[in-house]
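We emphasize that the prediction below concerns an isolated chain of 426 residues; any contacts that depend on oligomerization or on bound cofactors are therefore not represented. The input was used exactly as deposited, without trimming of termini.
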Amino acid sequence: MCVRTGYPPRTGLQIYAPFRSHDTLPTTRSGAPAYFAGGMHVLFIPKWYPGRNDPQLGDFIRKQALAVGRQVRVSVLFVHPVIGLGKREHQEVSEADGVWELRCYYKAFRSNDPRLQRAVNFVRYRRAALRGWARVQRERGMPDLFHAHILVRAVWLARTLARRERKPYLVSEQSSEYLDGTWERKPDWVKRFARRQVEDAARTIAVSDHLGRALVKHGLYARFEVVPNVLPVEQVPLPPRGPADRLMMVADLVDRTKNVSGVLRALALLRDRGLVLHLDLIGDGPDRDMLEGLTKDLGLGQQVTFHGRCPNADVLERMAGTGIVVVNSNVETFSVVTGEALTLGKPVVATRCGGPQAFVHDGNGLLVDPGDDRALADALAQVHDRHAEFDPERIRQDMAERFSMTAVGERLTAIYTDVLQHREHG
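Result of the prediction step, given as a token string:
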């Protein structure tokens, strides 16, 4: 079910040599890494993760956890504020497909003084996190390593626990703030603090080469490995082609980043040319009211449907019935939506915003420059007219080798094993 929600705050180059299939890893008779036989235990500590605030938030991190959970023992410690929580803290435990998940919620503090708000919420985060960590130890035991996802607090927590327990920690980054100018606007003390959290990491990982190079440029990473997001190659059957006049966009409704308004203007341009396309828009955010008003002003009320936020399973089910997926972002680190659409055999019209260039080519869609409404309208018209030429099976097969749950899980497991081997041989 899709819902409208309050928008959550989001708030010389060296690259590690990739693991090669002929490299030697200690294995059991079954072929699994030897660490798994002894119960290699990895603790994910994400900044973003699906929960009561937002069923979409960090779903891509959860898919990585599920992918790794096929290979090793995985626990998740997710600590997150909730506005208006009835009590000081609340914990929820669940287990899915072998992954144990502990969500630790704490009551968010609000103040007109941003420094006071930040300080109080950090204290509350720390208290909730340490209580969650105590429960992890009681119910799951000591992890062999910590894998933090998204700066800064999650990495601070992983580093703190790793130093205390004399274990390695890894850092993965997915945020677009290192590409859209947000990082440059942060205070110097925040930048120094963030760099300090990363400096001891056993490995630093980026979701794309584009993002990794930006992290090096900003002095956060010295080197990096690329591990992509998981796409639903193995989980979702290939759906029918879908109607050519049905579009879908899945995005946070933050217009300066996702440029949803540009899609609406492109639809109006096409309507004026005589081509009427229908858009299903999934997502929510601070600009929803503005975008609904623009939809009305452009006379698109019968062409555009706002669905609110949806769990990922519902997004994929709705996407299966569409004909074309559009990504009009100004910046993307990876673009899970592009990857999911192609995995479902759907042609994509996307911007050259960082992530989609790794996926989209003439055989599965078209690319346009960000911020060009007319070029976007032209591309949508071309893909609509050529819709029957796009082969869903070929589009999907192109994605399977790099982005399946098996491929991503094996890639991360190889990194974990290599880290622990190097630690043993010190």
